[in-house]
Write a structure and sequence with these properties.
Layout lengths: L1 E7 L2 H13 L5 E11 L2 E11 L3 H12 L7
Antiparallel strand pairs: 1-3, 2-3
Protein name: DUF2007 domain-containing protein
Organism: Geotoga petraea
Length: about 70
């Protein structure tokens, strides 16, 4: 069963997190929940990241590590 991990308004941030999780062997599914507005700089679409329930905690830890700027993949 997939569990909602995080919602993003900015697609590039979603793409970075998705790539990092997949590099760590975690399956990621995207659900776009629709446009929440259009600004001068482009479309704002809400993107939800879902991961398998058994990888939820590990995914949170990976995101936290990314936010702190410290990755040690080996």
């Amino acid at each position: 069963m997939m569990k909602l991990l995080k919602s993003f308004v900015k697609y590039p941030e979603y793409d970075i997190i998705k790539s990092i999780l997949e590099e760590n062997g975690i399956e990621v599914q995207l659900k776009q929940t629709g446009n929440i507005g259009v600004a001068f700089f482009g479309d704002s679409t809400n993107c939800d990241i879902y991961v398998p329930e058994e990888y939820y905690q590990k995914s949170l830890e990976i995101i936290e590590q990314y936010k702190e700027g410290g990755f040690n993949n080996g």
